[in-house]
Each structure stands twice: as C-alpha cells, then as structure tokens.
Amino acid sequence: MDKIKGTFGRRVGKKKDNVSPAVIRRLPRYHRFLGELLKQDKLRISSSELSCLMGVTASQIRQDLNCFGEFGQQGYGYNIRYLHKKIGELLGVNREYNAVILGAGNLGKALISSHMFERRGVNRLAMFDINPEIIGKTVAGIPVYSMDDLPRFCAEHQVDIGVLTTPKDAAVAVAKTLAELGVPGIWNFSSNELSLEGTGTIVENVHMGDSLMLLTYRLKAEKDEADK
Amino acid sequence: MDKIKGTFGRRVGKKKDNVSPAVIRRLPRYHRFLGELLKQDKLRISSSELSCLMGVTASQIRQDLNCFGEFGQQGYGYNIRYLHKKIGELLGVNREYNAVILGAGNLGKALISSHMFERRGVNRLAMFDINPEIIGKTVAGIPVYSMDDLPRFCAEHQVDIGVLTTPKDAAVAVAKTLAELGVPGIWNFSSNELSLEGTGTIVENVHMGDSLMLLTYRLKAEKDEADK
C-alpha cells in the first residue's frame, strides 16, 4: 500500500487516521464540550442536541464525527464517554508528554499555573529563564532553572514540548537550541512565526493578536450595520 | 436591496464586505506578514513569493485576496502598503477601540504588557481586580481598579472591549455585567466558552489549550509514522 503523508503527517488510505486537517482543527472543541457533558454525568447526546450546545449545524457535526469512525447510532445518539475517549486518543491526549516552559515572565507563569497541561496529559517538568531573580525559585510548584542548564536538562530528561514564551528577540535562538537538542515539539507564543523545516521539530504557532483582530472586525461590522 | 446578515455580521450582496468567514479568519495572518514586509521596506510582492513565505499555495493567496477587491496586477505583484492598509481597514484595525482588562493576574499582566493592543489601534484604559493587594497599583503604566468600580468606569468612559482573564468561576458573572453595562465586545480567555446571544455583546473565545492539543496530535502522528 502506498503511504502518502498529508499536512498533519496523517496517512491517506488508512481509515482511522484519514481525517482532514480542517476537521482536526475542530476536534479540540468537540473534546472540550464532550468533557463538560461527562462532568454533568450525561451518557448520550444526539447530533441535534450537540448542535444547539455548540452552535454548529447537526449535519456538520455528523460529517466531522463520521470522519474517523461510526460513533452515532440512529436514534440513540452518541455515546459521550466513548466519543470523548476516541477523540482524545486521536489528538494524542494522555500520551504522557513532557513539557518545559522557556521564559518565566507573566505569560509563562500564567500558562504553567493553568490546568491546561494536566488536562491534556502533558507533564510540566521545569521552567527556564535568564533572570537571576527568579532562577532557583518555583512557580506553581515547578522549578525555574537557568537557560544555561537547558542542554543538560534535555540530555537527562525526555522533553517532548518546549513552550516558548520568551521575548520576540530571543525566540528564534531558543527555538533553534530546542531543535538542536532534539525536542520534537515547540508551542510558540513569541510573536515570531517560526518554521523549523528540516530539523524534525514541529512548531505550533499561537497568535493571540489574530483573535483580537477578529473581535475588532466583528465590532466594526456590527457598527457599520447599525449606522446604516 | 435585501440585507442579509451573515455569521460575522457581514452584508451579502455588497462587494466590499462580501468576504467569507473562512477568509476573514485567515486575514490577520496576512496582515502580520505584510506588516513584517513593510518593516523591511519591501514595496511589492508576488503571490508566489508570499506563498513561499507563508507556506500557503499561491492560488489560495490569490483567491483569499481577490475576495475583497483587486490588489494584484499581473506581473507586478501586490502593493504591500496598500494591501496591508486595506486588510487593516476591513479588520477594523485603527478604529480606536478602548479596552479594559478584567483580572490582573499573570495572564492579565502578560496581555496588558504586550504590544498587541497598540498595534491594532486598541487603547488599554484600565484593569479591574478583586485583590486588594493589587488594586490602586499600575501594571505597564495602566491603573488597576476594584471590580466594584467597573459600572461607574463604564458609565464615564467609552469601553468597547472587555478582556476577560478572571478565573473560570467568576467569568460568567463578569461577562454578564459587561453585557449589562453595554460593552459591545468581550475577548474571553476564561476556559468557559461564553455566548451572550440576545444581549448585543459579541464574544470572541480564546482556547489556548486547543492549540496544545493540535501540537500533541501532530507529535503523535509523527511518532506513529516513525514507529511503522
């Protein structure tokens, strides 16, 4: 069988992994909503109920969720626990990844203090910074080391994800170091859009400002509408 | 002419605003890249150069940018300054919006200290918190007031955007208060996905954890591929 690698490293021609990048990008939201339903002890949900809850059409939901298998039974709806688990497995949740945070400023502190990592099966191992005032301390129970100790730390620990929250000027150099140290994934919050093609390191760029622009766009569109 | 309101409050049937929500979501990224090119004193760029830079197909770029007018001239490429300006106008950049930040914790501090707001023509007016230790102080030159002062502040100032960084438990109540006070836009970082339908307040939800899941998905896909 020919193996063709798609945008997300998926393999075409194999049922389970044959999910389009567009659907993949929507799956974390399903995972969140299904997780909330589980907390409320719900067992089953129909595509039309899920549609109301999520503000997506029922047909879109059926299309998205049928992509990677048949979870819905006509008239019975989806088994929430099973679907939540399957989506989580597909997304690599609970694979026990290890993360380090580069930069112990406000953003680094905010991220490490959130429940985001644990919930997705990602262990927070350590933070790294260049500021002597914070090196040696802990944030949310996680030790802060000197950036100089990063190579040794990566040699001694399995580090899967580097969370990049350094200032923009330092980000490229730190990202290159992470790639050289063989860290396979970078979650990049610096405003530089990084690409480390050819290094084997994957970068997921986060641009919070883009979402602020979508908000100002929507405010502008509403106002223009009201002014007419 | 019939006015039909689309998902983003756009008006169908009017050339300039007739941009699909999918294209709108991609525009902030174009705006960023074009802004970087301007800083490098570039004047023109072809769709194929932009394609290499952004990792998008040239045909996608032509489609996206033709949606709201003809900016490219065959053989000459795009006028970067003009395109940057037009995309900015469409997205409502530099409309002089006023924002307040609800919650002066690490995330609130990280956001208010970034250049994100200024760059998009959004003024940072004030922060609000319930912690007496921070009330009365300033963060990045912006005053922190008591949450109790929010109604009076909103009565005395034009507040367009409330940036919600409070803990999850407080978020719904604060969002409702903002809507009651007539604040038209909420940029929501609390992990609650808010919808304030019927209040006239628009919510842009940010879920940073979703992007962490996309990273773990890609790590998993790469590893599965390598293991085979």
Brief descriptors of the model:
228 residues, alpha/beta, seven-stranded mixed beta sheet, three-stranded antiparallel beta sheet, 12 strands, disordered N terminus
Describe it for me?
2 copies of one chain form a homodimer. The first copy, chain A, contains 9 helices and 12 strands. In chain A, strand 1 and strand 2 form a beta hairpin. The longest helix of chain A has 20 residues. With 228 residues, chain A is α/β, with parallel strands linked by helices. Chains A and B meet through helix 1, helix 5, helix 6 and helix 9 of A and helix 1, helix 5, helix 6 and helix 9 of B.
Compose a concise summary of this entry:
With 228 residues, chain A is an alpha/beta fold. Chain A has nine helices and twelve strands.
Question: pLDDT below 50 for ≥5 consecutive residues: which ranges of chain A?
Answer: 1-16
Report Rg of chain A: 21 Å
Most extensive protein-chain contact, per-chain counts: A-B, 66 and 66 residues
Approximate helicity band of chain A? 40-55%
The ordered string of helix (H) and strand (E) elements of chain A is: EEHEHHEEHEHHEEEHEHEEH
Structural class of chain A: alpha/beta
Overall mean pLDDT of chain A stands at 86
Strand order within the widest sheet of chain A? 8-9-7-6-10-11-12
Shape of chain A: globular
Q: Would you count the extended β strands of chain A for me?
A: 12
Tell me the distance between the termini of chain A. 59 Å
Report the total helices of chain A: 9
Q: Describe the main β-sheet of chain A briefly.
A: 7 strands, mixed
